[in-house]
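Quick one: structure tokens for this chain, please?
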Amino acid sequence: MPVTLEELGALDGYVHCKTCIDETGGIDGSVYKQQLEVGVKNETELFVNCTYHKLVIGRFIIQPVDTKCGCCDEQD
């Protein structure tokens, strides 16, 4: 069962695309837009990517995750 944001509580920090923030005016504290995706590679690397600027924003080593759920291979 997924954990809600309320159950999770406050986070220690966030991952952002600095280029998105700079280009959309967020540098002065106003609202900004970014297009991020999160994915797993080799079952132990978690990547945060900016799909707008085609940049890797962060790479984190994690415990092995089984990414073979089959839902992406299902066809109607």
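The CA atoms of residues 41 and 47 lie 8 Å apart.
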